[in-house]
Design a protein that fits this description.
Blueprint: H1 9-15, H2 27-42
C-alpha cells in the first residue's frame, strides 16, 4: 500500500511560502517528516476507527473458569 502524498499533512506545509518567497519548511524537515510518516504507517500506530471484537489479552482458554485453580 503506497502513501498518497497529496493527502499527507506535509504536502500542504510544503506549499507554504515565507514572506521572502522561500519555502516555509526546509527540504530536510520535509524529508524527516516523510520518514516519520512512513515509520508511523509501517508500525501501524494509527488509532482504530472501528470497534474491535477481539479480546485485548487472552489470559484464559475457551471454557476455562476465571476462579482459582483447584
Amino acid at each position: 500500500m503506497g502513501i498518497n502524498r497529496e493527502e499527507s499533512p506535509l504536502s500542504s506545509l510544503a506549499r507554504l511560502k515565507e514572506k521572502s518567497g522561500g519555502p516555509f519548511l526546509p527540504v530536510e524537515a520535509l524529508a524527516a517528516g516523510e520518514r516519520l510518516l512512513a515509520d508511523f504507517t509501517r508500525g501501524q500506530l494509527q488509532p482504530r476507527i472501528t470497534a474491535s471484537r477481539e479480546p485485548r489479552h487472552a489470559s484464559r482458554t475457551n471454557g476455562a473458569r476465571g476462579g482459582m485453580a483447584a
